[in-house]
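At your convenience, could you comment on the folded chain following this short note?
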Amino acid sequence: FPVTISVDREERSARGIRIFLEANGFIGIKLGQFLAHSALVIPGSPLQKELQELNNAAEPVDKGILFDMLEKIYNGRAFEDHFESLDDPLGQASIKVVYRARRKDGSDAVIKFKRPEVDKLISQDLAFLEEISNRCAATMEEEGVPVPAGLLSRLKAIFEEELNFGDMEEDGKG
């Protein structure tokens, strides 16, 4: 006999919002992650559950790419020259991937990798968002829709902070 799965309207809408945010790249994912933990979304609601899925939405990065990145950081020396192993990811986010590794001396390390091309993609996403915002500002104002002052500059500051790996130490304590 056929099995019927009933998904209510609120769940479908919540799923649609999550899919829309995912389709809008880093900015959409980051916005959804923010909303999932804000007072704007009812705790335990289908929307919050869907938005929390964005915390796990990032695709893994091929380890070969990560080894190439480490080789560049270490001036052409291979991963094996510095480390014994690279474990499975501790965490995968839209901007970075975090791994536990074991150094040659046996000590543990946490290595944070910025996803390839992430700077360029976020810059493009922010430029697009700024263009949309500028085009919609007058209409939103006419309709009485409040636009928080400095929203785009705050978003840019958040992404710049997340993209800045310069102050992080190799062992993840920075």
In short: The CA atoms of residues 20 and 28 lie 8 Å apart. Confidence is low (pLDDT under 50) at residues 167-174.
